[in-house]
Amino acid sequence: MTIHSVERMSKNKSSGQSVRAVVVDKREAILRSAIKVFAEKGYFNSKVADIAGEAGIADGTVYLYFKSKDEILHSIFDRAMAEFIAEGRREIAEIQNPADKLRRIARLHLEKLGTDRDLAIVFQIELRGSTKFMQEFSAAGFAEYLDIIRQTFAEGQASGVFRTDIKPVVCAKVLYGSLDEMVTNWILSKKSYPLAPMADEVLKIFFGGVMVK
Amino acid sequence: MTIHSVERMSKNKSSGQSVRAVVVDKREAILRSAIKVFAEKGYFNSKVADIAGEAGIADGTVYLYFKSKDEILHSIFDRAMAEFIAEGRREIAEIQNPADKLRRIARLHLEKLGTDRDLAIVFQIELRGSTKFMQEFSAAGFAEYLDIIRQTFAEGQASGVFRTDIKPVVCAKVLYGSLDEMVTNWILSKKSYPLAPMADEVLKIFFGGVMVK
Amino acid sequence: MTIHSVERMSKNKSSGQSVRAVVVDKREAILRSAIKVFAEKGYFNSKVADIAGEAGIADGTVYLYFKSKDEILHSIFDRAMAEFIAEGRREIAEIQNPADKLRRIARLHLEKLGTDRDLAIVFQIELRGSTKFMQEFSAAGFAEYLDIIRQTFAEGQASGVFRTDIKPVVCAKVLYGSLDEMVTNWILSKKSYPLAPMADEVLKIFFGGVMVK
Amino acid sequence: MTIHSVERMSKNKSSGQSVRAVVVDKREAILRSAIKVFAEKGYFNSKVADIAGEAGIADGTVYLYFKSKDEILHSIFDRAMAEFIAEGRREIAEIQNPADKLRRIARLHLEKLGTDRDLAIVFQIELRGSTKFMQEFSAAGFAEYLDIIRQTFAEGQASGVFRTDIKPVVCAKVLYGSLDEMVTNWILSKKSYPLAPMADEVLKIFFGGVMVK
DNA sequence: AATGAATGAGCATTCATTCAT
DNA sequence: TATGAATGAATGCTCATTCAT
After folding, report:
1. In this structure, is the CB of residue C64 within 7 Å of any atom belonging to strand E?
2. Which of D47, D97, D131 to mutate to test binding with chain C, by most C CBs within 10 Å of its CB?
């Protein structure tokens, strides 16, 4: 790299557009690195230096983008959850049948996490490492996600698709809990298999029950 | 052992029985304290000194009964899980109908954890704080527990009670995941409500599905 | 063991003569164990429990015979040094020629330590692990030992056997230092060889010098 | 390096040279502090915090320059011994007469340690506090030092200066042991006297023996 | 005298965070 | 913005010593 290229670079950094780009990119890079590192070693066993090293930046630089190690974990969750919910809402908006909506949500759930194993590990394992986090977690995006399922189910009850002797909240928890268990088992499994197809197996039971009619 | 032999023993300075009793009691006290402390602050945020303080003993005494802080967490799990599985097996042994067996297991699951909130927190939250632990966890008692459900379901399929177009493994995961979610929500809930009755609500869905027939 | 045998034993312990014997024996056993353990692991890395275990007694029993771990080390030195000096004095008392006296001391020095490797290790290595100890050490028996050599040399000067242009103190240090170095090398050597014969090799130089006459 | 180059350097934020200088200086400062602290309290009784405090840095900073407390002790020895040997070799290279060479070595030995009492204490006392260290010590620089003496003596035998009925190895140990004893006594002595002159007194005996001819 | 369970002070090391450059 | 050297609080574990039995 010549002196000239360096000069050009430093000019770029100063221009409005690319500054934001750089900022976003570096934040992004740190988050990606953190997900990888957290997935490998666990939150408490991961050092900020590991994350910085993985992202190819200095330790101190992390603190230009995040206030603390804890905030990184929160950001991972916030960002993924927001994206998760947005995409979920977008997809089911175009679907009429409540049962199909739930099917879409279930598939999306497993597709998302089945594609990004590291993120899945952080979600299933690391995010649950502290009661404190779980309580905030619960209060925030997670509740919203569960509520989408609940509402969709209630719609189905109103339109006569679903049984009305079941509480929508319970129903949402059962579906979410089932999917969650699929993810956890997939992560911990020594065998490698695609996660997404499990959605249909879960729904077969969820929709029809296990009893012979 | 006769009454006479007991009398003789109590005259002895250190009878096998009473020594063991003290040892068991103190081990027990440490485990109970650890469950409480872990539940309150999380495993990584709990100091060994906290556990010792809660148990009313000196820090060093903890190490007369446990090799490390980590071993305490393992012991909590091992003991509870063993008891859990033993009781589960005992109860379903007396039941014929596979559906009733599953109902018994489900109720037992929620009764147990619903009675001991601290233990529930450690089980739901702390035991999942590390991938490493989860993998050992998975390989050990947890797999056995899931297998009991799977076998019971398979029995039901053989006896014509349950649908045969569903994989027993998936079925076990769905039931377990649903119950697990009930526990997690119960723990994190600000409201106080009995956990055990949720078993029936879960089973209503599990057995009959959510669709209108 | 029957009750009777126990009774007999407790009577033995109460008899004057054997009590002292037991006390001495146990003190002795602890010292021997300590020498072995210190030689193997070093003073700071040895636990009192190791010594007790080696001696086949309970940890607390050590404190019935010694005030502290430190005192054990001191006792090892004191006892060995006293014995050392006493034997040295006794042996040279019967010898007339000062040169022969020094030869006897030198041989005795290496014979003693060459026979008890563990004691040698403690003497050469462990006793020097602290300045504090070395200073007390120096002030006590060690100075006396060095003084015996010095006096013997001075006798030799008076009787015209040794050069008078050499300070007895320096002479004593040279002889002691030379012997000491033989012991240290012998301990650290991977090869196994008898230590005592080195005395004559040292004396050949000490008496005659290294220069060609 | 000229004054101008220095000026240029100080203008640079972080020139390679000055960074290294700082690093070396701090390492140096830690080693000096450690020598002082070890000399005062002994290795095992010295806390890393003591060393850091003496050096005027934070505890953690020590670990930026040394891997462990143990490594500090090793570094002290390695550095001093390397310097010791290098200087010894350099000095005797210019001398022809083997006897003069030994005289030079002996004087150097006592001059070095007589100038730096703390270093002398660490060398004489602390480095011998563990068999483990002594064995590595023996295998490394110490053996090399002894070997220089041995070779020099063998040269003297070849050139007819020294007696040939003496083993060079024994001879080296006697000389080294004698000097070593001078240092140890000097350290432990309550009186204050110059160490270096003792070299000649040792050599008077070493070269000529103690016997009247 | 003997025991060994209990004590609790003590310490090397780690690592999130800061800040001068 | 970026760096990375420096910080120093924090903690699991050890082990010499005590003491009730």
Report:
1. yes
2. D131
A5 Cα to chain B: minimum distance (Å): 45
Clarify whether residues D29 and D116 are in a common domain.
no
Task: Give the tokens for residue B3.
Answer: 């009454």
In DSSP terms, A162 is beta-bridged to: B211
Looking at the fold, whether A33 and A75 belong to one and the same domain comes out as no
For residue B9, what pLDDT is reported?
38
Nearest to C131 by CA among D45, D127, D41: D41
pTM of the model: 0.84
Mean pLDDT, residues C31-50 taken together: 94
Question: What is the CB neighbour count within 10 angstroms for residue B178?
Answer: 28
Same domain for B163 and B192? yes
Amino acid occupying residue B116 = D
Binning pLDDT at 50, 70 and 90, where does residue C22 land? low
CATH number of the domain that residue D33 is part of: 1.10.10.60
Among residues B66, B89, B112, the one where a domain terminates is B66
* C-alpha–C-alpha distance, residues D33 and D72, integer Å: 10
Residue nearest to nucleotide F8 (CA to C1'): D58
Distance (Å, whole) CA A123 – CA A116: 11
* Minimum CA–C1' distance nucleotide for D14: E21
Q: Are residues D117 and D138 in the same domain?
A: yes
Are residues D119 and D187 part of one domain? yes
Nearest residue of chain C to residue D181 (CA atoms): C177
Structural domain that includes position D118: 69-213
pLDDT digits (tens, 9 = 90+) for D58-95: 999 999 999 999 999 999 988 998 998 999 999 999 99
